[in-house]
Write a structure and sequence with these properties.
With about 300 residues, the protein is α+β, with helices and mostly antiparallel strands. The protein contains 7 helices and 16 strands.
């Protein structure tokens, strides 16, 4: 579901109209619900969301920038020395352990440097005396969902709308911090180039320009009757998008208490039925490891 669909779905759970819950109110609760569910997913499977960043070391420089989505809420950064054989390969069970929410904030797999988070940067000690490279593995944080009309475009970029959200064409408040939407999916939902989906690799907050991981097959349109619309999607797996809108409705239910118990039972479940939240957690848990399946021939006789 795109953001507008989720807003409608959350209101439907509460039998509420836009006069009862504004679009901005619902969008805020949807973001809170999304972040809560993402944390639960990471706790269930620490490897579900993983990103990497190559840090180029400069001789005489100790402090380095790290991506915004590595700084916001992440519980672990794993640093390895890409110039040394030690630490290049991590056993899956160790990888899971290092990424776990209860793991130390920094796990150092290099044999040359030590690392410390210092504000919004990472400090490398001792200060590198020559160039080098560090690969940082981390559990990223993700931004809020958005929906709007394309305002600018090139073969590999798209400019988000500059108009304020009216919850008719433009949905969600655009964050203006660089890299805030990195790693999220952006989809062309209507107009020229509809159906295309790309991953955001860079975001310039001051210009609202997102760079995508590969060129558009059909460049979206910025004007005319076939003007394109975009949606930045929730990172929660699409089959479980309804869990996000249900959780948002539950967060809003104190304003409509007659639906609170019903929504609680639907979300968490009852003694006789597993709720939507635990259906998602069970699916996450079942996909963590793969095992070899062995086929045994059996002779049942003639």
């Amino acid at each position: 579901m795109i953001l507008s669909d989720m807003i409608v779905d959350a209101r439907r759970h509460l039998d509420a109209s836009s006069k009862f819950f504004s679009g901005a109110e619902v969008a805020d609760r949807l973001f809170a619900a999304q972040q809560e569910i993402l944390r639960s997913m990471v706790k269930e499977d620490p490897t579900f969301f993983v990103d990497t960043h190559d840090l180029t070391l400069v001789s005489g420089q100790a402090l380095y920038d790290i991506p915004l989505n590595a700084r916001l809420g992440t519980r672990m950064i794993l640093a390895e020395n890409t110039a040394n054989d030690f630490g290049l390969e991590v056993e899956p069970i160790d990888f899971t352990h290092y990424l776990a929410l209860e793991a130390p904030g920094l796990v150092n797999l290099s044999n040359t440097w030590n690392f410390m988070l210092e504000g919004q940067k990472i400090r490398v000690t001792p200060t590198p005396s020559s160039a080098g490279s560090i690969k940082i593995w981390y559990t990223p944080s993700y931004g809020n969902m958005l929906q709007g009309r394309v305002e600018g475009v090139t073969n590999s970029t798209l400019t988000l709308n500059s108009t304020a959200p009216d919850y008719v064409w433009e949905f969600g408040t655009i964050d203006r911090r660089d890299d805030y939407y990195n790693g999220m999916e952006i989809r062309i939902t209507d107009g020229h180039g509809v159906g295309q989906s790309r991953t955001i690799t860079d975001y310039n907050g001051s210009t609202r320009v997102v760079t995508v991981d590969s060129n558009w097959s059909t460049v979206p349109a910025v004007s005319g009757g076939d003007r394109s619309t975009y949606s930045i999607m929730s990172p929660v797996p699409e089959d479980f998008h309804s869990v996000v809108s249900l959780r948002a409705a539950l967060l809003m239910s104190p304003k409509n208490r007659k639906r609170q118990q019903e929504l609680t039972d639907l979300y968490y479940g009852t003694p006789n039925r597993r709720g939507h939240y635990y259906e998602l957690m069970a699916w996450i848990s079942s996909r963590v490891y793969a095992r070899n399946e062995v086929v045994q021939p059996v002779d049942y006789g003639a």
